[in-house]
């Protein structure tokens, strides 16, 4: 098991959003301010790790034909737990994330990791994979939130950062902004990856 | 009032609150299956069909199974099971009675299970307190909105494939930017009021 390599894959070279292009819906929809992004990122991190562990634990007894249905039920169970916990302890975040918390069930990152990693690897490796991919996802959410909140409202996590005279570009907090910011982020990622590849080749 | 409410729901779901451009539901298939107009149309039609059916069945399940036994917290689990079973059923039905449509849709049919627009519409119906007819209408028109968006997007993308875009933006990023501009266009509909 290679902890460092898995971590690097989850956060950079095989980032779930920027490279695997999974989990677009939530990435675009809820990244309007930092508390939202953090709440969503941590929820997905917890659910991803828990479901990876559970699916890895049952991987040998699940019949191949109905595995997807079983995975979805396992994931839905964890999502319901997290949903209820959020409603109980941080109702403000639960309210602003709304329907996107139950929709984590159909977030392709979780099913994708279950199918491509947890169903083939040991429990510990799957848990670490869940944590790494979850961190990669959370970092992208936070980056999106920071850009959209800073330029769309002039604040960061609700605190005024840019001078009051700054005219906020409100369009960034609208749906349009989500598409544009994510497009530019992925473009930056492709550029950086191709550059580091060239560097390795010239060595 | 009936007709007016239904009209308002439909116009809202297709244009003003389009599932893709303003609610961000169903982005994955929207991005994944929009390289060609034919497949995009097939996918859109299949999603519309499943969304209508799913709205009906999840509404019934919620009303007659979950609410009487106070099991509302099981909504997510129940709904996703209903949808998975429904998609499986539609798949078997199409295979038997309309094999040509079945082969045309191919792999996209089972993928509808994990389309967040379908689960989303089921949850939104309950959240908005729609009655049975309103739910079904919302499901179908939401699907039509998805169909409209994905067909428009696919036709732009077919041309985009030949465009000379910057190296880093090639493929997915430029598609996202295009979708962003389309979302900007759809924002124009938000002024639409039926009442």
Strand content of chain B: under 5%
| Beta-strand segment tally of chain B | 0
| CA-based shape of chain B | globular
Give a count of the beta strands of chain A, DSSP E runs of length 2 or more. 2
Distance between the termini of chain A: 27 Å
Question: Which percent range fits the helix content of chain A?
Answer: 55-70%
Using only C-alpha atoms, the radius of gyration of chain B works out to: 18 Å
SSE succession of chain A: HHHHHHHEEH
Separate helix tally of chain B: 9
Structural class of chain A: mainly alpha
Largest sheet of chain B: none
Strand content of chain A: under 5%
> Span from first to last CA of chain B?
10 Å
Strand order of the largest sheet of chain A: 1-2
**Oligomeric organization of the protein chains:** heterodimer
What features would you describe in this structure?
The complex is a heterodimer of chains A (203) and B (195). Chain A has eight helices and two strands, in the order αααααααββα. Chain A has one domain. Chain A has a two-stranded antiparallel ribbon with strand order 1-2. In chain A, 69% of the residues lie in helices and 2% in strands. In chain A, helix 3 (34-57) packs across helix 4 (67-89), helix 3 packs parallel to helix 6 and helix 4 (67-89) crosses helix 6 (108-118). Chain B is 73% helix and 0% strand. In chain B, helix 1 (2-16) packs parallel to helix 8 (132-160), helix 4 crosses helix 5 (99-105) and helix 7 (116-127) packs antiparallel against helix 8 (132-160). The A-B interface holds A 21-22, 24-26, 28-29, 68-69, 72-73, 76-77, 79-80, 83-84, 98-99, 102-103, 105-108, 111, 171, 174-180, 182-184, 186-188, 190-191, 194 and B 21-28, 31, 73-77, 80-81, 84, 113-116, 119-120, 123-124, 127, 166-170, 172-177, 179-181, 183-184, 187.
Give a topology summary:
The complex is a heterodimer of chains A (about 200) and B (about 200).
Chain A: H1 3-13, H2 24-29, H3 34-57, H4 67-89, H5 91-97, H6 108-118, H7 123-153, E1 155-156, E2 159-160, H8 175-202
Antiparallel strand pairs in A: 1-2
Chain B: H1 2-16, H2 27-32, H3 37-66, H4 75-97, H5 99-105, H6 108-111, H7 116-127, H8 132-160, H9 172-187
